[in-house]
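Quick review question:
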């Protein structure tokens, strides 16, 4: 593919690209084609003058712009045809009745020139393979022999005018090389407009990304990410507050235990109701468990699950001497709470 000469589109110079791609070299320039166009205009002017330079048709012809070229770089089929005559080449309309009567298979030709809406491009055989050398493509497009006829028919349906190039084309390196080898094309070329649009879109996306990064001081953090961070910080503060509350509770319990120890050392009596000292509670629990163990030892060995045969008076006496586990727990909690309140008051006064 690298050996194939392929001019890409510049401005509206598609006629120049078409001729150079056909001849496989830089054979024509805009200046040379303009010279041919001016020569054709002068020949047309001379023919119009034969009817009289004072005639209305002649004056109208002089006021009209050239039909062979314009300022954009467009050149007519007459300019292209005259340029090819220099190389002994001739153009024949592909769908003309004269050519259709010849019944020539397109693959037996050497090249075609196609035109639609002032755009010209070449389809040429190089070696043993056909190539679409349209200057609007990013590179030559390989066309198989079986697809060539369908390709030309599709162009005709789209409104293209197709011309068969008759005559011997000048030798070129690509034709000689492709006579010996065949090429394969893995990816078809794109239109230049599509490639430029894709590159432009990539540049726009890159610019937008850089603008976002710059707006966020390079951190790339969007508003949603900032909201998520704020929520995470709020949850973290709540967890810290809960940990502080638990720490305060542990300190309060520790103070309660210290207060209980001080009350025990001072031997302050608290016998009214359930307000007992820890020492009294401990003694009553020991007495209760000792009696329970004595009763279990007196039980017959064959009846371990039977309850001791005690009278209601003895049971009431036991309950009077020792409080139940629930009463003792309640008494301990009450004592702890009172000690905490006393300690908080003392610390407040300090």
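Suggested answer, residue by residue:
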């Amino acid at each position: 593919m690298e050996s194939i000469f392929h001019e890409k589109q510049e401005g509206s110079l598609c006629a120049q690209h078409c001729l150079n791609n056909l001849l496989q070299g830089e054979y024509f320039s805009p200046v040379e084609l303009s010279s041919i166009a001016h020569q054709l205009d002068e020949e047309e002017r001379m023919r119009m003058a034969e009817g009289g330079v004072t005639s209305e048709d002649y004056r109208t012809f002089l006021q009209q712009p050239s039909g062979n070229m314009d300022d954009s770089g467009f050149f007519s089929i007459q300019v292209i045809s005259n340029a090819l005559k220099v190389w002994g080449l001739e153009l024949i309309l592909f769908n003309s009745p004269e050519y259709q009567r010849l019944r020539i298979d397109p693959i037996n030709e050497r090249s075609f020139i196609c035109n639609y809406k002032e755009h010209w491009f070449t389809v040429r055989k190089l070696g043993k393979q056909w190539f679409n050398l349209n200057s609007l493509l990013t590179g030559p497009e390989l066309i198989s022999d079986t697809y060539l006829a369908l390709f030309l028919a599709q162009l005709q349906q789209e409104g293209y005018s197709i011309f068969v190039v008759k005559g011997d084309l000048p030798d070129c390196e690509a034709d000689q090389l492709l006579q010996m080898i065949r090429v394969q094309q893995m990816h078809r070329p794109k239109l230049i407009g599509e490639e430029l649009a894709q590159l432009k879109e990539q540049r726009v996306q890159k610019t937008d990304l850089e603008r976002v990064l710059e707006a966020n001081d390079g951190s790339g953090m969007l508003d949603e990410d900032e909201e998520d961070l704020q929520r995470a910080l709020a949850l973290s503060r709540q967890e810290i507050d809960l940990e502080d509350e638990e720490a305060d509770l542990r300190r309060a319990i520790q103070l309660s235990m210290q207060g209980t120890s001080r009350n025990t050392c001072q031997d302050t009596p608290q016998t009214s109701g359930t307000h007992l000292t820890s020492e009294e509670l401990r003694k009553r629990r020991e007495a209760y468990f000792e009696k329970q163990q004595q009763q279990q030892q007196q039980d017959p060995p064959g009846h371990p699950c039977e309850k001791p045969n005690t009278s209601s008076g003895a049971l009431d006496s036991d309950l009077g001497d020792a409080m139940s586990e629930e009463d003792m727990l309640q008494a301990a909690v009450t004592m702890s709470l009172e000690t905490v309140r006393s300690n908080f008051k003392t610390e407040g006064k300090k």
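Why it works: The radius of gyration is 54 Å. DSSP finds twelve helices and six strands in the chain.
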